[in-house]
Here is the input.
Amino acid sequence: MKFNKLLSLIFAFLFVSCSNFYSMEDFALVEKIDAHYHIYSAESISMEQAKKDNFKLLAINTNSKGCERVVEAHQWLKALKTKFPSDFEFTTTFCLDGWDKPGWQENTISWIDQCIADGAISVKVWKNIGMEFRDKDSILIMIDDPKFDAIFAHLVEKGIPLVGHLGEPKACWQPIEKMQANNNKNYYKNNPQYHMYLHPDYPSYEEQMDARDRMLGKNPDLVFIGCHLASLEWSVDVLAEWLDRFPNAAVDMAARMGDLFYQTRDDHKKVHDFFIKYQDRILYGTDITENGGDKDAFQKRMHETWFRDWEYLVSNHKMTSKLIDGEFQGLKLPKEVVDKIYAANTKKWYKSF
Ligand SMILES: [Zn+2]
Here is the structure.
């Protein structure tokens, strides 16, 4: 490193440490983790951009396209961990194939153990539990099904956290015009098959949340990270109550910035105070998904998403976003809170990085 560059880095560091708040310029200087990321590609281009923006990535393997893909993605993620040992972590997940046959629990536990031995740090459960998978009698399998008890007991015994995207945003059960965030409006307009408001034969939002909470009630020692603000994105008040009720739970913010912007627009102080009070329980994440495709456009989108969220969390700028209508103001959280949300909480809750 050239002497001048070293000197300017030292000055930058000193400047960063003097103020109680970060500036926009500090973005690349501060260590950050995107704790909810997806990579479905053998040749990842995400790590290159992550390095530039001083991010580490937690890639979450999700059972969204069948069991073979879970196994294939596990191999990609394992290889990435070998390539980037200190800047990359990944989770595993499991399949429900063979649910009705004897041995499903034993097979699932040995798959999880193998994945943990390969370097995975956590196990993911997805919304298809509760919304898609059915048993041999065509009954939807809910997350509090007793058959999962042995799996979750095993995670507790091994100290492995469970990361869960269960249910959907509340918007999924609302008419389009009642939804808070524009991304939800567009998504459900274009995907009516997933818009539960149109499918009252499926479990309600409350039934999904209750099943998740009964599961947590049965497993008080299970460390649980609720993806997407634990599907309680629509109200920081309700989310606060939930965090109070389940002290072993934390949440990631992935793909729910619209709901945070919306609530910030309407009551800035309330959202700011929520972040201060629950500063040890909130993990930064985006849900950005690498599937291959145009490298430059993808990396640009990564950077823009990360930079927008940095502006929201560290500055008091007046902001607009296509995610909501109207203007909202950044939260300008103190440095120690920003450091927790961006890195320390992920290290603590996932015991990694
Ligand atoms: Zn995700």
